[in-house]
Amino acid sequence: MSDGSKIEWTEATWNPVTGCSKVSPGCKHCYAERDWPRLAAPRAKPNIYTGRDFTDVKCHPEKLGIPLRWTKPRRIFVNSMSDLFHEAVPFEFVDAVWLTMIKSQQHIFQILTKRPQRMLEFFEWESKRCEHPTLPNVWLGVSCENQETFDERWRILAKVPAAVRWFSLEPMIGRIDMCEAFGMWWNQTMHCFEGSGSKLNPHGFSWVVAGGESGPHARPMHPDWVRAIRDQCQAAGVPFFFKQWGEWAPPTDGAGGRKIVMHRFGKKAAGRSLDGRTWDEYPA
Ligand code: SF4
User: I need a surface site. Which of 2, 55, 58, 259 has the fewest CB within 10 A?
Assistant: First the structure.
């Protein structure tokens, strides 16, 4: 839990749940798992991680009230150290998280999951119990790392009731084509996209964040993969945020050509400039 975050697209993190387990190739070098030994190490004053394994998914009711005490509005990433829709998190607890978000309309809550099916099941379960309004301050997103996970997860996200639906394409470990999700297709020159008027972005996706992998075993992201995401967002009128190159980056930002030799600069030095500029767009 921390007020202030190094994650470029948020301002604070709130972890009412800790711990997770892997579901797809994007989890291979999970940063939460990597950070876990440091957090769980023995200390004089134990914290919510102390002595636990990463796979020991634990709900923390005592942390539910934290955003209520933050009076200054901020963007809050919910569960940076877990997945709110993990199978081990009871819907009753997810509901308690929702109650905090309902009571904290001054904040924006950014939720990401790799388990959108369970997110959808939560809303179905919830709709049988009560009428929950779609909260304008809750942004619901899916993390996708390649075409396979994107194709599976966007379709489920499209069914979820949310004011803002978004994608985090990080770590990008393969090319992702979002055209079908955005109601677009390639034209014959394979350079532009064509939508068809009112059918453009029919599911109302509101935001795309993309980035490469960081950490000691990071897999490089081809610059053309992220350029294609930027171009598809622009064609669909969807805000685009380039979070980071990650561990690897091209030697010169803006270098074209088919043959790219990626260099291992490290996350900080690799930076987040794409073709000479930063992309910091947010949903309206
Ligand atoms: S879902 Fe997220 S937190 Fe859980 S293992 Fe995968 S990358 Fe880590």
Answer: 259
